[in-house]
Amino acid sequence: MSCLPAWPYSPYIAHRNGGHLAPENTLAAMRVGAAHGFTMFEFDVKLSRDGIAFLLHDDTLDRCTDGHGPAGALDFGQIAQLDAGSWHSAGFAGEPPPSFAAIARFARANDLACNVEIKPCPGQEAETGAAVAQLCAHFWQDAAVPPLLSSFQESALAEARRVAPHMPRALLVDAIPADWAQRLAALEAVALNINHRDASAERVQAIHAAGYRVAAWTINEPGRARELLALGVDAIFTDNLAEIRPA
Ligand code: G3P
Ligand code: MG
């Protein structure tokens, strides 16, 4: 067995900060996740038109805010005026899309670990990877536990590696590609973050044997979560914060 890279993270990761309990990718969601005992949070980061990093999953504003159109077509000052909470429930009405800076500040103040998923607007892969990695190096300078940077976009991770080589990286994949080991080696990644449908004992063992950690997304059924952790998966992402959570 190869020597595995450091993994100073909880095996339970709150997906999009608060899973299904709160509006995704908000600060309120991170507070809800922390109140449920989570110490590790995954969220999606992209750039506004004026280059400010903020949290949003989709390419467009429509599903998770009261705005419309491409997320990268507005300055952050305009995005910050939007309501990213009402779509979820009235209790979160008025919750704004947060800047990455605000989320990092809250995480650091409360000793919460982060998986920063670089989720670029189309065509901004390299620019977003570089900007987010640079911000991570700044926000987490001197931190005992660095954030884990991940992305489906290899060009974003390659830029992250260039500007902040010491920040740990994970390649996100939906279907595991045949050449996963070469891709991880090229990115000097520490982990492969896989769709849980692709997880099996043989695959987890093979990834570990090659010297990489493995995390699986997104598991909302408690029995499946137990199964994956028993297989040796290093972490699972969940939206079901009420039933799948740290002891
Ligand atoms: O990082 C795990 C998971 O968040 C990847 O998929 O679409 O939820 O960002 P998605
Ligand atoms: Mg994500």
TrEMBL record:
<protein>
    <submittedName>
        <fullName>Cytoplasmic glycerophosphodiester phosphodiesterase</fullName>
        <ecNumber>3.1.4.46</ecNumber>
    </submittedName>
</protein>
<dbReference type="InterPro" id="IPR030395">
    <property type="entry name" value="GP_PDE_dom"/>
</dbReference>
<dbReference type="Pfam" id="PF03009">
    <property type="entry name" value="GDPD"/>
</dbReference>
<keyword id="KW-0378">Hydrolase</keyword>
<dbReference type="InterPro" id="IPR017946">
    <property type="entry name" value="PLC-like_Pdiesterase_TIM-brl"/>
</dbReference>
<dbReference type="GO" id="GO:0006629">
    <property type="term" value="P:lipid metabolic process"/>
</dbReference>
<feature type="domain" description="GP-PDE">
    <location>
        <begin position="10"/>
        <end position="247"/>
    </location>
</feature>
<dbReference type="GO" id="GO:0008889">
    <property type="term" value="F:glycerophosphodiester phosphodiesterase activity"/>
</dbReference>
